[in-house]
Amino acid sequence: MLPMQVFSRFERSLRPAAIAAPMIAAALLQAGGAKADAVADFYRGKSINMIVGYSSGGGYDIYARAIARHLGKHIPGNPKVVVNNMPGAGSLVSLNYLYNVAPKDGTAIATFGRGLVMEPLIGAAKVQYDATKVTWIGSASNELSVCAVTAKSKVEKFEETFATEVAVGGEGSGSDPDTYALLVRNLFGAKMKLVTGYPGGNDMTLAIERGEIDGRCGWSWGSIKATRPDWIAGPNRLRVLLAMTLDRSPEMPDVPTVLEKAKSESDREIVKLIVSRQVVARPFAAPPSIPEDRRDALRAGFDATMKDPEFLAEAKALSLEIAPIGGAEVDKLVQELYRTPPEVVARAKALIAGAPASTPAKH
Prior knowledge:
Strand content: 5-15%
Order of helices and strands: HEHEHEHEEEHEHEHEHEHHEHH
CATH class of the largest domain: Alpha Beta
Strand order of the largest sheet: 2-1-3-10-4-11
CATH topology of the largest domain: D-Maltodextrin-Binding Protein, domain 2
Number of helices: 12
Helix content: 40-55%
Low-confidence stretches: 1-18
């Protein structure tokens, strides 16, 4: 036990800090309030341009419009969020625009193909952005993706694609449909004829209905449920050949995963690198170097939207899968992926390179 004299001196030594603590806390609260006020002052009366890298009616577009209807009320100043479609090159046009042209003040955000997260690392497209410097706002889902064909296709199981050709749709280099079709074709030897150049998922769905293509690889199960629920059950149900995931999904426990088809540890490393993009299934981002307080406000607003009961009710009505990931987590994942050993990256890049077989007919 401390002697009384020592205890008294110890107590006196604490008094300045004890007196200062409330003053420091008050100052911090005042600074935080000023920061929030500055963000509110900036956004008040303004609009945020939400760019969708695909044509209207597809999965990315549906997610974006649902989020846009609620996001503004969770951002200080309550800006209006306006959706604009900017399709092209599998949504590469939109991300190049966001990174290089869009204002870097927090008034522009975009959603684009999750594959573009990895395109500078393993893709063939001439990208004009650095994925590690993009301002990641968050992802609405880490969803299930499949390789599937219609009931009219000549194949029923994945193994049958080794002998029978199937035509699958694509959007452009870096997009899931292109990347996954090339992965399956070049790693496993499946006869996948890639027909690429469609502006978006809805265009590929219409092409399937017209009989131009048999199906898609890298097809969001959530999008199928939202846009063509009748294709999940009934006489015209899709034939799911592979789940483009690392683990079997509870929704389709009998469907093999792409990882299960890998024959060696080297092949498994390639699959893991390419398929890991599924974690960031519905990415939203802002340009690099926007002010930190506005970045934080956009991230917090996105997170709040993902918990908003009104938004969740709308998402449920639209059959949208909501399993959000915060912007800081997305940024951490991207930084980790870009530290992949060079030899793994080189082989992955070689596997998904190569010219597509054809381009879609004009309609």
